[in-house]
Design brief:
By secondary structure, the chain is an alpha/beta fold. 31% of the residues lie in helices and 26% in strands. It is elongated. Bound molecules: ligand EPZ. Ligand EPZ binds next to helix 1, helix 5, helix 6 and helix 12.
């Protein structure tokens, strides 16, 4: 297992320019969408992160041919050779559930391992299952697997009980080849959902209401190939903004979509950080000497993203005062707190709230990453902790960040990867 070692410094100031990559959570559904057609799908701005390679392994097992050259992915699924997503892969990446809708729509059958829970909480998929049953699928859950079949999916009206990102994505993909009209209401409106819809329309799908809570899909007989550039990763961008904020940094981020980050930008500005547009796709951040505490509550887009909660908590340990962080999306997404406490943070958790008392001068320690965003949080904390911080199980970080240590090193951080791969 790789480790990340950081020589932190209270006085560190990150400076320079960093390019933000494509959105992991947009490219995963886009890869799933390639199962809907026998023609080539080409994706640009694809981040070389672990989850992308895992998803590629999954669709290759189903008959996809293609590869990722630099940051361009070309995929073609002429014929499906398998309709099964085995437990080993699904356990490694919950987003594997995204093959369920496309397999049912194109092939009429799917066998997908139940994802189960993960480090950030219970991860039910009842909304995916109920929605697909409304489209006419027969679904049974046995021996830890979802067994789904449908001669041909039929359009229906479906209202999501609660907003689900991959649930919305699964149902939109399934509905593109269903017979007749489907109306989905209370959809998730994350930019990644919209980006998938834009790709599907390029493939020939008929979708109205992209970016809205009500999406209307008129089924078509088949979909074709397309080329599509993946949107920038708003969470990677937010992570670097937090890194700049914590280190009184002066950074330029390029390749970003500020309009996808309004709430995060607003909260960072309230913390005392100047953030201004830079060029056509950039942000310039200049952080002041003091970070003002902020109370945040995570919520579905356009609210404060749960995927930024851990990173923001790291920054609030450096704020002059008390911040209350409320996590409303996942029931166990405070795994990073115990590790921050070991670095000297002052945080108390009660239910869905974490009370962060700053400013605490952190001191480096050996830590362990529990999940993707928790590991990003520990990297940020390690930057400003005095002495050495080692983050074990850095593979979690690699799931969603491409070479984060190289990007931070180029901005002045003293950070390196210790690989135990022979
Ligand atoms: C997506 O997960 C993201 N993953 C997550 O990012 C992100 O944290 C999450 O959305 C919320 O924004 C991908 O897009 C691949 P949900 P997803 O379904 O779709 C409940 C990261 O770090 N729910 O929107 O699995 C669920 O328990 C990852 O990149 C049901 O009850 O999340 C949660 O409380 C972590 N039944 C809430 O809805 C269901 O059938 C939102 O979950 C589905 C979800």
């Amino acid at each position: 297992m790789d480790k990340i070692r950081i020589q932190g410094d209270h006085a560190l100031r990150l400076k320079g320019e960093v390019r933000i990559g494509g959105a992991k959570n947009a490219v995963l559904p886009a890869i799933a969408a390639s199962l809907l057609t026998s023609e080539e799908v080409r994706l640009g701005n694809v981040p070389r992160v672990k989850d992308v390679f895992t998803f590629l392994d999954l669709v290759r097992e189903m008959g996809a041919v293609g590869d990722l050259a630099a940051n361009t992915l070309s995929l073609r699924v002429r014929d499906l050779s398998s309709d099964e997503a085995a437990y080993a892969l699904v356990r490694a990446m919950r987003a594997s559930i995204l093959v369920l809708g496309p397999l049912l729509a194109r092939h009429g059958k799917a066998v997908v391992a139940l994802p189960g829970g993960c480090a950030i909480g219970s991860r039910p998929i009842d909304l995916h299952i109920n929605g697909l049953q409304r489209l006419g699928a027969t679904i049974s859950l046995e021996h830890g697997y979802i067994r789904a079949s449908a001669d041909r999916l039929r359009g229906a009206e479906i209202a999501f009980e609660k907003k689900t990102v991959t649930g919305t994505e699964n149902l939109v993909m399934a509905a593109t080849l269903a017979e007749g009209k489907t109306v989905l209401s209370n959809c998730a409106v994350e930019p990644e959902v919209s980006d998938l819809c834009v790709l599907l329309v390029k493939m020939g799908a008929r979708i109205e209401g992209i970016g809205e809570e009500m999406i209307r899909i008129s089924g078509v007989a088949e979909l074709g190939g397309a080329f599509h550039d993946i949107i920038p990763d708003r969470i990677e961008a937010g992570t670097f903004l937090a890194a700049g904020g914590m280190t009184r940094g002066d950074l330029v981020l390029t390749g970003v979509r500020p309009d996808h980050m309004t709430t995060v930008i607003e909260r960072l500005r309230f913390s005392g950080i100047a953030i201004d547009p830079a060029g056509s796709d950039g942000l310039h951040i200049v952080a002041g000497p003091v970070i003002r505490p902020q109370d945040i509550t995570t919520s579905p887009y356009p609210g404060f993203p749960t995927d930024m909660q851990a990173q923001f908590m790291a920054m609030m340990t450096q704020a002059e005062g008390t911040s209350i962080i409320t996590e409303t999306i996942f029931d166990r997404r405070f795994g990073h707190v115990n590790e921050l406490l070991r670095l000297g943070a002052n945080i108390e958790v009660a239910g869905d709230k974490a009370v962060v008392r700053g400013k605490t001068l952190l001191s480096g320690a050996e830590t362990i990453a529990t999940d993707l965003r928790a590991s990003a949080c520990l990297v940020l904390a390690g930057l400003v902790a005095s002495g050495e911080t080692v983050i074990n199980e850095a593979e979690h970080l690699d799931r969603g960040y491409e070479r984060i240590e190289d990007k931070l090193k180029a901005l002045g951080a003293r950070i390196e990867r210790i690989s135990d791969r022979k």
